[in-house]
Amino acid sequence: MTKTEGKTASAAVKDILLSNPDGLHEVLRAVMQEVLEAEMEEALGASKGERTPERLGYRSAYYGRTLVTRVGKLELRVPQDRA
Fold it and tell me: Is a pLDDT exceeding 90 seen at residue 10?
């Protein structure tokens, strides 16, 4: 990464966080949601909708969960699997 690219990325993040008071809140929520999805894919051995012989289970639905953090309460959709 060059210095120009680093400055541009830093400026973009700074603009997002300064222009939107809930910017950090939304970024953290999106990251946490992606982590939950990745954990489910790892546990099942396949991504959502993927059909493979190595699949260990199936997705069922989502349930809501509130995670309290320093930046506020994050409303997450936790994926469920079928037992």
Answer: no
Tokens found for residue 33: 């949601």
Question: Does the model's pTM come out above 0.85?
Answer: no
Q: Which amino acid would we find at residue 16?
A: I
What are the pLDDT digits (tens) for 13-49?
677 777 877 778 888 888 899 999 999 999 888 888 8
Q: Cα–Cα distance between 57 and 45 in angstroms, integer?
A: 8
**CA dist list (Å): 67 to 28, 72, 73, 75, 78:** 11, 8, 6, 7, 11
Cα Rg of the chain, angstroms = 17
Q: Which residues contact 26 (CB under 8 A, 6 or more apart)?
A: 20
| Separation CA 29–CA 19 (nearest Å) | 18
Report, as an integer, the average pLDDT of 53-63.
Answer: 88
